[in-house]
Amino acid sequence: AGHATLPGIAGAGAVSLALGGTGRAPWALVSGAALGAVAGIALVHLIRRWTRLPPDAAMAIALGTLFGLGTAMPSALQQAEGGHGAGRESCVTGDAATLVRSDLAVAPAVAATWALATAALRNDLRALAFDESFARAVGRPVPWLDALVSAIAVANIVAGMRAVGLVLSVALLVIPAAAARAWWRTMGGMT
User: CA geometry: angle at 23 spanning 18 and 28, to 5°?
Assistant: First the structure.
């Protein structure tokens, strides 16, 4: 989902410029990032639904295409008067010095939501993570759980984007899971 935020950021900058703004308003860029991430997740699900491609190939196609689009769009926006890449640099690398108090309230809210969802749906999420076919066979609501995990990932990426940037936000989602997998051999140890 992280790679898909780039076209959303660039698109939000373009819309902001078209409406007479600077193309760099934080609320617009964060909203665009969220919309881009949701669009990326939807594209992955559409590719999986309408083709016979495995999930990793669908994700590679969707996110690779959106990442390429997201890196090309700011170049076009730089040509527009006042575009300046639509604030893409601050979203990719983050800028903790520009945070305000309201920005700092978002992270605990997202963390609390994730913790509550994980606690309430622990067994369902474990079944989904272990084997999607198994989860479906035992009656777990796989599409709903998949959408929930995607929504929480989007929220985490977008919430951390202003402070630490897109790259580190995605890394903070991936690295703990990869480390847990390397250290533990059983699902119980990882969760």
Answer: 100
